[in-house]
Every structure is written in C-alpha cells, then in structure tokens.
Amino acid sequence: MKYNIALLKGDGIGPEIVDSAVRVLTALGEKFGHEFNFTPYDIGGVAIDKHGEPLPKATVEGCLNSDSVLLGAVGGPKWDTLPGNMRPEKALLGIREAMGLFTNLRPAKLYSALKDDCPLRSDIVENGFDIMIVRELTGGIYFGERGMREGKYGEEAYDTECYSRMEIERIARVAFETAKKRRCNLISIDKANVLESSRLWRKVVHEIAAEYPEVSCSDMLVDNAAMQLVRNPAQFDVIVTSNMFGDILSDEASQITGSIGMLPSASLGETSRGLYEPIHGSAPDIAGKGLANPIATILSAAMMLLYSFGLSAESDCIVSAVDKVLSCGYRTADIAHGGESLSTDAITDKIIENI
Length: 355
Ligand code: NAD
Description:
About 40% of the residues lie in helices and about 20% in strands. The protein is built from eleven helices and twelve strands. The model has no long low-confidence stretch (mean pLDDT about 95). Nicotinamide-adenine-dinucleotide binds next to loops.
C-alpha cells in the first residue's frame, strides 16, 4: 500500500525527532512492503520566519490532501514576545480546527524497563499500568461562551461549559471502539454531582454503552479520578472525558509515567486522517545537540499506523522494537539518570535494528 504523510517538523527538536520517525517508518515500509511518501510543510516559528505566519495556507492544504499528518513540536524563545495570534502555538489550534479533530487520544504507559522513573511508590506500580485517555477536543468550556461583565461585586469574568448530545455521542463512540480494541474496560469521568453538562454527558454515555455490551462501562467523578490515578493507576484501561477534565488528567497521567520524551498522542476526526504528535514541546534547551529522545514521536508514528491506516501488525512491530531497545538498557540522556546514553540518531538505529 502507498501512504502520503504530511510532515510538520516545526521548531527546536521537532526536525530531529520527526526525521527519526521517518527513518523508522521507511525501514518498516521495506519490511512490510508499504510505500510511505513524506512531504514536509512549515509550521510554527519556522513558518513565521519564512512566510510571516505560523500556519500558512499551503500547510493546511498539504495536510488536508495527505493521508495523515506527523507533527514534531512548535515554539521557542525567539517567538515568545509575539502577540497571541502570531505565536507559533496558535498554529496548533488552527491545524486541529482545519482538520476537524474532535478526539485526542493520549496513552500513558509505564514501561517495565523504566519503572524507576515513576514517581509513585514501587508497590503501587508493581504490575505497571497502561491507560488510554480519550479527551473531547473541540467542545466544552474552552470553546463555550465567555466574557466580562459588571456583576454584584463589580467586574467579573465567566466561561461556559456546554456540551451537545451530538458531541458526547461521537466522543463516546470513539471511546467504546477504543476500549473494544484493548481490555474492554471504559471509565467515563465527569462531575455529574454538580454540573448539568456532566449529567447530560453521563446520560448519553450510558445510552451508547447499550450498543457495546462487550465493554464494561462505569462512571467516576473527576475529583476521585485525580486521586485514583495516583492511588491505583492499574485500575484504568480507557478513560473518556471532557475537554478540560481531559487536559488536566492526561497531564497527571503522563507525569506518573515519569518520562515526557516517551509519550505519543493522536488527534482524530470523522475521517481516517489524523494528526500525530509527541506530548512534549520543542525543548529549545537541547535542540540541535543530538540529545532529544525520539521515542514519543516514533510511537506517535505507530499510532498513525494503527488508527489512520489500520496496520496493527506494523504498529505492534514498532512498539515491540521500542520495548526491546529499552529492555536491553539503551537510553537517551533524559531517561539515563547520568548513566551511559545514546544520541537521537543512535537510539533510532537501535530501534530500526529491532524492526
Ligand atoms: P518542553 O516539553 O519542550 O520541555 C520540557 C523539558 O523536557 C525540557 O527540559 C526539555 O529539554 C525536556 N524534553 C522535552 N521533550 C524531550 C525529549 N523528546 N527528549 C528529551 N528531553 C525532552 O516544554 P517547555 O520547555 O515548557 O516548552 C518549550 C517550547 O515548546 C515552548 O515554546 C512551548 O510553548 C512549546 N510547546 C509546544 C508544544 C507542541 O508543539 N505541541 C507543547 C508544549 C510546549
């Protein structure tokens, strides 16, 4: 099969880590008989420098004409003083909106070889954990009505959490489908004891649950979920939640894995075309030094194979190559704790050797 992939390398370590993922995909293509064609487009600070805007039209068109999109990271001190709508990060919201991406999938997995990186007590994470957070990405309080007004006590500001049945139904379906491909356990997180929007959320999730009898589904209040994630993370398989709760809980979940350079993400919409990116930023402090951990981006490419192209064996092949490399003790500096470490290119070579 032939796949056209748009590459948005971006700034800082973006080009280095995307190049690593391209090398892994190319090696995988040779092994499995697929042709991956890569077309780079500018985004973020580099696009501001070259075209005077963070998200040029050609980049949006290139992404919309591709089969899927792999993004590095954007931003850096050079562009920090620009006004809000000219900042590199503005391009991220723009491209998600242009591609109609309403789902964000963020796995948080503790690799057995990296157990010592986990900040939780060893007895809590004895058996590891492997969580998939399904976060609604285009609704809720971040997009609701907001404003300033004169209130009872003078100046006041407000933001509104609003969810339609349609928005809840479509994210719930993604979550049930995701759970079906994993351990068939879904926990829907809300604040239904207080919020009207959460009560509709809960009602609609229960209705959709009836279509998926093979998936066990339960509810959890968000304050309890924040505690349970550090008390017993292994109880979670798939979590589905709203935009703001997902934003907060997915950062908490990533922290308990202990290694920011290891975590991929996927943003999906109605079509198979998705946007895949590591959860970390452009790490300007280590850019160009060969120190970046490319694994989050390589695992983002693995998610692309699974969720956009339906290539599960190929996706598993990347994940197990990463597992093997870590089990053999190879590390980049961020996870080496002062011990021996490999450069971005050298660890990529090790992963390719295991493909
Ligand atoms: P960051 O994630 O870039 O870096 C935080 C720390 O983690 C740094 O010490 C960095 O060296 C380290 N780190 C991050 N990724 C790493 C990797 N793959 N390998 C090894 N070490 C890694 O966060 P920050 O420093 O707060 O932000 C830097 C820039 O990135 C800012 O301009 C910010 O706006 C931008 N940013 C972009 C995205 C994105 O593109 N999606 C996300 C977050 C931040």
